[in-house]
Recover the amino acids of this structure.
C-alpha cells in the first residue's frame, strides 16, 4: 500500500491546538500567504513562531476556540475565532478562519474543522459566526453554505492580488439561540 493510500485511510482527529502544533500551523499559513488567497505579503511581514504562540495563548486564555486537524500525527489544518468587533456589545459574535494544508484540499479537512469550530463556539456561548471569503473561492463558499452560513454582504474590490482587484463575500451563521433570545445575565464578578 502506498504512503498516500495509508494516509487517506487514517482517521482525522480534530482537537484543541497545542504549542507543539505551532510550526506546522505556521507552515500552512505561510503557504496560504505566499500562494493562496492572501498572496502578496512580504516575507518580512510573515508571522514568526513566537507571534503565533502568543496569539494562540491569548485566544485560549479568553476561551476562543483554536483547533487543529491531525492525521497520522501530522497537522493537516487548523481553525480559530477572534471577536468580530472589540466593543463589548459584540462579545457574542466571532469571526473565524480556517486553513487547510495544500496537499489535503478536497479531503474533507475543512468540513471537519468547520464542524469542530461551530460546536466549540456554540458551547462557549457565542451567538453569531462571521466569515470573509474571497469571492472566487467557490469551495469555501460551498462549504459555508452547507453549514448554514448565508451571504450577508459583498465587499467589492477590497483585496489586490494576482494583479487584479478581488471581492470578498461576508457570510454569517447563528449559533444556539442566535438573536432569538437575550444572552444569559453576566456573573456579578464581571458587571
Amino acid at each position: 500500500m502506498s504512503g498516500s493510500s495509508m494516509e487517506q485511510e487514517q482517521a482525522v482527529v480534530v482537537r484543541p491546538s497545542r504549542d507543539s502544533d505551532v510550526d506546522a500551523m505556521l507552515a500552512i499559513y505561510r503557504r496560504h500567504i505566499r500562494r493562496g488567497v492572501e498572496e502578496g505579503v512580504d516575507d518580512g511581514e510573515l508571522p514568526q513562531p513566537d507571534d503565533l504562540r502568543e496569539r494562540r495563548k491569548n485566544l485560549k486564555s479568553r476561551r476562543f476556540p483554536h483547533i487543529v486537524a491531525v492525521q497520522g500525527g501530522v497537522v493537516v489544518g487548523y481553525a480559530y475565532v477572534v471577536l468580530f468587533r472589540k466593543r463589548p456589545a459584540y462579545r457574542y459574535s466571532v469571526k473565524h478562519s480556517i486553513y487547510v494544508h495544500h496537499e489535503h484540499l478536497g479531503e474533507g479537512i475543512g468540513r471537519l474543522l468547520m464542524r469542530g469550530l461551530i460546536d466549540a463556539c456554540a458551547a462557549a456561548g457565542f451567538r453569531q459566526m462571521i466569515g470573509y471569503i474571497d469571492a472566487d473561492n467557490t469551495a469555501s463558499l460551498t462549504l459555508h453554505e452547507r453549514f448554514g452560513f448565508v451571504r450577508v454582504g459583498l465587499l467589492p474590490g477590497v483585496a489586490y492580488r494576482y494583479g487584479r482587484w478581488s471581492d470578498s463575500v461576508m457570510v454569517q451563521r447563528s449559533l444556539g439561540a442566535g438573536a432569538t433570545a437575550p444572552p444569559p445575565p453576566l456573573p456579578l464578578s464581571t458587571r
Summary: The first strand starts at residue 12 and ends at 16. Strands lie at 12-16, 66-71, 74-83, 93-100, 128-134, 150-161, 164-174. Residues 157 and 164 are 9 Å apart (CA to CA). Helices lie at 3-9, 22-35, 49-61, 109-123, 138-146.
